[in-house]
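[step 3/7] fold_predict: job queued, chain A
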Amino acid sequence: MACFERASPALKDILLKLYRAEKPMEIDHQLYEFGSVQYHIQSSASDPHHTYLSISTPLLSQGALLPDKLSHATIEMIKGVGSNAVDIVEPAKEGYHLTLRLNFSKIPRDKDSVKVITQISAMQAVIISYQLKEMLQNVNSQVTLHGMHKPIKLVYHPREPFFVIRQPQKIIAVFPMRFKENSDVIIATAFFQELMDVGSSQEWAKAPPCIWSPIPPPELRGETFEDLSTNGGFVSFDIYSRHVEGKRLDKTVWSLLNFYAYVKSHVKCTRGFIQRRMRKRLESLVKVLQKASSEEEEEEEQFGKDQDAGCNYMRKLVSLSKSKILKRRSYGVLSRKIKRIRFRIKIHGFGRFRRRWLRFPKFSSSMGYTKLD
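[step 4/7] structure written:
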C-alpha cells in the first residue's frame, strides 16, 4: 500500500478539489498507487451533479488465485459505510472491481464534508480489510469446526502471503519474510529482534506479543515448501480478544495488512540513513586527505623554490668564479707576455757598463767575531 493511512491522500485531494470548485470541472484522471491499486475519476460539465469513481485493487483471498469480483457481503458492507452521497453502480466499469457515483450536492457544506470525502477516499481500505475483520471478530467463537486449527493462507500481494491460524482463545498471524538483498535481511533481522525486546517490556504489555524465528513455527507444518522458503524468517503475532474490541478492531486489521509495507519502509529508511552516514564519512575523509595533500604540495613547492634559489645561487657563484678564473688567466697571460716583451729589450754595451761601474764596494769590519762553543 502507498501509505499507512486508510484514505488515499492523492484521491482525497482530487475529490476535495472537485467538491470545492465553484464551476463544474471536466476531468478524466487515472491514479495509480503502490500495491497495484488503481483509481479512475470522471467528471463531466454536462452532468455537474455526479462524479464517477472506479476502484481496482488486489483482493484478500484464501489461496493462490486472487478473486475477480467483490463478494455480496462486501458489497453490502460498502453500502452501509457510504453516505447518502454515494451509490454503487452495477455492473462496475470494465477492468475495475467497484464503481461509485458521487453526488457532491448531498454532502453538507460544513466540517463534516471533509469527513465524508475522507471516508470515500478510504473505500479501498474498507474492501481489503473486510474479510480479515470478519475472521478476527470470531476470535472467541466456541463453535468447533473441522480443521479449525488449519492455517488459512491469505493473499493480498502474490509475493507476500501471510497465514492466519485460529486457536481456541486467540488467532495467530504469521508473516513469512522475504527480501531481495542480503543487506535488507540483516537490517530486518535486527529490527525483528528489537521488536521482540520492546514487545516483551512492561510498557507494551497490552500490544499483541511478537515472536520472530528463522524457522517456520509449528502451526505451519504441512504447508508447501514454496510458502515456507524464506531468507528473513517468520514473524508471528498473537491476537487476543482485547485487541479486537470496539475501535481496536480497525487498528489491528490495518496494522496486520500494512505489516509488510511497514517493514519495507523501515528497511528502506534505515538503508538510506546508513548510506547517508557513509557518504558523509567519506566526504570528511576526502577533505582530510585533500588537506594533507595540499599541505604536502605546499611543502614541495616551498622546497622546490628553496632548491631553485640554491641552484640559482650556485649558478651565480659558478659564473662569478668562472669570470674570476678567466680574469686571472687573462691577467697572468698578459703579465707573462709583458715580461717576455721586457726581457727581449736589449741595450748594446749595457753589460760591460754594469760590470765596470755598477759594482758594490766591499767593506771590512774592524771587529772580530769569536765562535762560541
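[step 5/7] annotate
Residues 259-343 form the longest helix (85 residues).
Residues 276-327 form one domain.
exit 0
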